[in-house]
Model the fold of this input.
Amino acid sequence: MTQSRLLALQSTVMAITTTLGRAVAWLTVVLVLVTFTVVLLRYGFQWSHMALQEAIVYLHCIVFLLALAWTADADQHVRVDIFYRRFTVRQKAWINCLGSLVFLLPFSLFLLWVTWPFFQSAWAIKEASGEAGGLPWVYWLKGLLPLAAASLVMQAIGQVLGNLGRLLAEVEA
Done:
């Protein structure tokens, strides 16, 4: 595969990741509003509603799980870059490519493998909240786990393709 095709494929993967991440990021505004409402109702009116409280947990899960790949794409993940920041573009491409192949991709595939049965069993029984008045969509929430893992697999593949494209660009130059 040529360098331009690798970078085009990476660009497509990253566009999906970015679109999902930006859409999910707006849920943080909803999260703040729901949290404010719960606090206002509880302390201002001595009234609480379990579904609203669980909605906060649901929103947290949605935001954090579906923004994982976007965070990695934006290079905002945790990294000890004492040495990395001094590396050349070529060295960074090698590090990123190997890191994605050795760490991110295997971890993401393992996460997908481990969470899929967890989601399937929740879906089979249409698992709902154990709390009276809670939300009935726990099985949907558990479906976010394999979805997050799949988005990380796509991200890892995109990072490998992009870094291979950068390395090939230097070889072709």
Q: What stands out?
A: The chain has a mean pLDDT of 85. The CA atoms of residues 23 and 67 lie 9 Å apart.
